[in-house]
Design goal:
Largest sheet: 6 strands, mixed
Radius of gyration: 19 Å
Distance between the termini: 56 Å
Strand order of the largest sheet: 6-7-8-3-9-10
Helix content: 25-40%
Order of helices and strands: HHEEEHEEHEHHHHEHEEEHH
Bound molecules: adenosine-5'-triphosphate
Number of helices: 11
């Protein structure tokens, strides 16, 4: 029995760590047959078409009831606009993204997309409408082409190649032994953090999602590539309502609104210029990062 339990336990851990990384997971959930945290309720309907408005209404959440993580979070992202969430480590930034993707349900309050409570729509339709560029992309043990097309299995080879070009991956793929047919993942070619992130970006470009979640999308890239990628993301972002979970403030300057989160509460909000003028937590973080960058050169 022990021999059976150990691998199951490992799978459980793997599942949890992947979920933490915010991957499109419905397939994997089934595969691992673990009790999912949320289920479709009876009568759940597909998310209807809509412009992509996101609303958090007095959302509170705790992983463990003794430790509240988010407290009465309110915000609205108008269609095709960008909201960035910043704040110290552990503030609850990634948790906001996980709730929007409905890995968990709020303990109080509600989350709406185009006026629909996430609890009333099927998870498949919700996840079909969202693309996530996570901090750490998990690749499937399959070809790099399959990994890019994941989320849009009907994509043509030409569309896959166009997405790879837009994500600055095509030169890299051209140098691989089997091109788009090269096996990647644990049992294939190991990609660097930046390469994996570009696969996630290509996936998002291909998916043209109603909502885009960027979890610090440019963290693993060198600065020249980062510039280009940021421009590309901006272009996808123009067609999608975007939530950016940011650690480096340089990635949020252009956001339509920035929320500053501290210990689960919104302590400041506004545009970059408004927040600098407040001389509060954001202005302090900004000064510290600017000084840091000068030191590093
Ligand atoms: P960082 O900038 O370090 O990524 P963050 O602001 O994104 O931090 P979250 O990942 O949202 O923070 O985590 C908020 C709090 O929730 C942290 O205290 C973290 O330890 C806790 N937490 C995160 N995931 C879980 C989980 N699956 N179970 C229990 N607690 C968790």
């Amino acid at each position: 029995l022990i021999q059976l339990i150990r691998p199951m336990d490992r799978l459980g851990q793997l599942y949890r760590s992947i979920r933490q990384a915010l991957v499109d997971l419905d397939q994997l959930v089934e595969l691992l047959a673990e009790e999912p945290e949320v289920r479709d309720r009876s009568g759940a309907v597909p998310l209807p078409q809509g412009p992509g408005e996101v609303r958090f209404e007095a959302v509170s959440f705790a992983y463990d009831p003794r430790h509240p993580i988010l407290e009465r979070i309110d915000f609205r992202i108008p269609p095709k606009r960008t909201l960035a969430v910043v704040g110290p480590t552990g503030a609850g930034k990634s948790t906001i993204a996980r709730l929007l993707f409905r890995f968990y349900d709020p303990s109080e309050g509600r989350i709406l997309i185009d006026g629909r409570d996430l609890r009333d729509v099927t998870q498949a339709s919700l996840r079909g409408a969202i693309a996530v560029v996570p901090q750490d992309t998990v690749l499937f043990n399959d070809t790099i082409g399959y990994n890019i097309a994941f989320g849009r299995p009907d994509a043509s080879q030409a569309e896959i190649e166009a997405a790879a070009r837009a994500a600055e991956l095509s030169g890299f793929i051209a140098r691989l032994p089997d091109g788009y047919g090269t096996l990647v993942g644990e049992r294939g070619l190991k990609l660097s953090g930046g390469e994996k992130q570009r696969v996630a970006i290509a996936r998002a470009i291909l998916k043209r999602p109603r909502l885009l979640i960027l979890d610090e999308a440019t963290s693993a890239l060198d600065s020249a590539t980062e510039q280009t990628i940021r421009r590309r993301l901006h272009e996808i972002g123009r067609g999608s309502t975007t939530l950016v979970i940011a650690h480096r403030l340089s990635t949020v300057v252009d956001a339509d609104e920035i929320l500053v989160l501290d210990r689960g509460r919104i302590v400041e909000r506004g545009t970059h210029a408004q927040l600098l003028a407040r001389h509060g937590l954001y202005a302090g973080l900004w000064r510290r990062q600017a000084a840091e960058q000068e030191r590093v050169g």
